[in-house]
């Protein structure tokens, strides 16, 4: 059985979605955000103690993109990635690399600018917001006329993009991209496996926690995400 180290309502949500799409049996291991040493097995998998992380027999994987890619290749019958040798694989790998290396870091600058400067937090956040606008324009061009990131094939890239776009709902009025991006978001969210993952993570359709004071169904003293832009 796959062991899935996660924090409900965190970026591990994308990997939960993939596990639900595949339908494989797995065990979720809840990590306490402010006391990660309470789960010593996590440090064995990932010395940085970040989630998500997977243990599948002797295989150990961490980082969102790596976990998604591992699951798609471990269970090819689920059809969540183009096969090796498929021309579409280049675009697939590019999507995963771009989502992990370009899109996701911008959210960190918007949500927690204190980690990127000792001086002007508003400046870091403002730059992040401006870059998010450019990302939205790019995504709108890429998704125009497409059902999924790769066209007609649904993949873990769509799951990753769904999670990242969903974070727009933490700031009322913030919108990533336009009609094509938003239609993609709701299309992915309507899939039964994604709905199951949201329920397991205590998330509504906007990916907002029903009970922000809980993690894994238990009370936890976690910092609240705030915005002042």
Cα distance, first to last residue?
Answer: 44 Å
pLDDT averaged over residues: 90
Helix content: 40-55%
Low-confidence stretches: none
Major sheet description:
4 strands, mixed
Nearest-angstrom radius of gyration? 17 Å
Helix segment count?
8
How many beta strands in the DSSP annotation?
Answer: 6
Q: Record the strand order, biggest sheet.
A: 2-1-3-4
Global geometry = globular
Give helix and strand order, one letter per element, not per position: EHEHEEHHHHHHEE
Estimate the strand proportion: 5-15%
Quaternary state, please?
single chain
Helix-strand category:
alpha+beta
What would you say this structure looks like, in words?
The chain is of the alpha+beta class. Helix content is 45%, strand content 10%. A four-stranded mixed beta sheet has the order 2-1-3-4, covered by helices on one side. The radius of gyration is 17 Å and the shape is globular. The termini are far apart.
In short:
By secondary structure, the protein is α+β, with helices and mostly antiparallel strands. It contains 8 helices and 6 strands, in the order βαβαββααααααββ.
Keywords:
two-stranded antiparallel sheet; single chain; 229 residues; alpha+beta; globular; 8 helices; 6 strands; four-stranded mixed beta sheet
How do the helices and strands line up, and which of them pair or pack?
Layout: E1 2-6, H1 13-22, E2 26-30, H2 40-45, E3 53-56, E4 59-62, H3 64-74, H4 89-111, H5 121-143, H6 156-166, H7 179-189, H8 192-200, E5 214-215, E6 218-219
């Amino acid at each position: 059985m796959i062991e899935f180290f996660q924090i409900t309502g965190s970026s591990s949500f994308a990997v939960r979605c993939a596990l639900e799409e595949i339908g494989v049996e797995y065990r979720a291991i809840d990590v306490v955000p402010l006391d990660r040493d309470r789960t010593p097995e996590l440090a064995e998998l990932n010395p940085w103690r970040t989630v998500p992380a997977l243990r599948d027999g002797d295989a150990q994987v961490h980082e969102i993109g790596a976990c998604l890619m591992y699951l798609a290749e471990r269970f090819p019958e689920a059809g969540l990635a183009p096969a090796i040798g498929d021309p579409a694989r280049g675009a697939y790998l590019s999507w995963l690399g771009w989502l992990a290396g370009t899109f996701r870091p911008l959210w960190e600058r918007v949500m927690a600018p204190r980690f990127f400067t000792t001086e002007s937090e508003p400046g870091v956040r403002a730059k992040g917001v401006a870059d998010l606008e450019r990302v939205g324009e790019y995504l709108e061009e890429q998704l125009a006329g497409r059902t999924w990131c790769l066209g007609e094939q649904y993949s873990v890239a769509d799951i990753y993009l769904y999670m990242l776009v969903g974070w727009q709902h933490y700031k009322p009025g913030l919108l990533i991209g336009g009609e094509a991006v938003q239609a993609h978001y709701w299309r992915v969210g309507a899939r039964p496996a994604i709905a199951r993952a949201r329920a397991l993570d205590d998330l509504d359709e906007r990916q907002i926690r029903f009970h922000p004071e809980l993690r894994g169904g238990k009370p936890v003293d976690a910092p609240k995400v705030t915005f002042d832009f």
